[in-house]
Design goal:
Rossmann fold; 2 domains; 6-stranded parallel beta sheet; 4-stranded parallel beta sheet; 10 strands; 48% helix
């Protein structure tokens, strides 16, 4: 269920960061290990968390989910949200340390009753992967059959990601091409009849391409990245688009009050008309696209995996030293 999500992308980035730092790890929690680091909060993860706690091993969880990200994601999310909130609070409070991808996520978890110590570490982005030259970009535009100004969004096809707003904007700009890349869940998992109807009857200038393995290719083929999501813990696809130097249009929500600055490295909006105006501005100004893309690239470089790897190295060493000291005290 998670293999084509941002959580899996963040998990892969974590593994790459550990490789960069020269840290040994196993993906099998039954192998010998010193620290258990979880990226998901399902029953299997909870089982291994309990096993690690009984063995006296530190447990870290990267908090990819909050009560807010549950809404508009799965069937009956509004009904199950109170249960999800209670479960998240319980499992997060069972860990020794939480990793919040952003300061906003950290503050949100505190508001939701999570008391476990927290550290902010970005999910990071592999800037070497998301970098292609102009010749490659033109070839990729041909590969995807693109001849017009192209607006791209990436994410699961769920209401929380702003799919309906994306379609409204596309309908108002028939002269542009709109692409959405991301997994479309089964209606059993994501039962939103209006959204499914609108996707099936999308305007002629809209294509839903599904999951694409080499996602950097579609970034390279686009002119603008449009991200109308209503709630995120970070929005890893934004960092990927920024690493490609794409100009970004995104929803003005609290998580992006830090890092993303309107008019400097992105354009923000709250309404359909504001999104339309921003995309029109970018379509008519190559200079604006270049400036915003250049500043977005700088932001992406501040989330490079080599920086993230150093943070993890210090984190694990500190946690194990603390554990060692506690064991000495308890043995006296």
């Amino acid at each position: 269920m998670l293999k084509r999500t941002g959580i899996m992308s963040a998990y892969r980035n974590h593994r790459q960061a550990l490789d960069t730092a020269g840290l040994f790890y196993t993906e099998d929690p039954t192998d010998e290990h010193d620290v258990l680091h979880l990226h998901w909060i399902g029953p299997r993860s909870y089982y291994h968390l309990q096993q690690a706690k009984r063995a006296g091993k530190p447990v870290i969880i990267t908090a990819h989910s909050t009560a807010g990200t549950c809404r508009g994601s799965v069937t009956l999310s509004e009904v199950i949200n109170p249960i999800a909130r209670a479960y998240l609070r319980h499992i997060y409070n069972s860990a020794d340390l939480l990793i919040a991808p952003t300061p906003y996520t950290k503050s949100l978890l505190r508001e939701q009753g999570v008391t476990t110590p927290m550290q902010v570490i970005s999910n990071g982005v592999d800037v070497s992967r998301f970098s292609l030259n102009s010749l490659a970009c033109e070839c990729l535009r041909q590969k995807f059959g693109l001849s017009r100004f192209t607006v791209l969004s990436v994410g699961q096809v769920i209401p929380r990601k702003g799919v309906l707003d994306f379609l409204d904007v596309a309908e108002s700009l028939p002269e542009f091409e709109f692409l959405w890349v991301g997994e479309r869940l089964s209606p059993w998992l994501s039962f939103y009849p209006l959204m499914h109807y609108r996707v099936e009857h999308a305007p002629r200038n809209v294509r839903f391409l599904g999951f694409i393995e080499h996602i950097e290719e579609i970034y390279a083929a686009a002119d603008v990245f449009f991200f109308p999501s209503y709630e995120e813990t970070q929005g890893l696809v934004l960092l990927e688009a920024a690493a490609m130097g794409l100009p970004i249009v995104l929803r003005d929500i609290p998580i992006y009050h830090q890092g993303f600055v309107h008019g400097m490295n992105c354009l923000k909006g709250r309404t359909i008309s504001e999104f339309i105006d921003s995309i029109k501005r970018l379509a008519t100004s190559e200079e604006l696209r270049r400036c915003l893309g250049s500043e977005a690239l700088k932001l992406a470089h501040s989330h490079r995996l080599d920086q993230i790897s150093n943070q993890y190295k210090v984190l694990y060493e500190t946690l194990l030293e603390r554990k060692k000291s506690q064991d000495k005290c308890s043995s006296r």
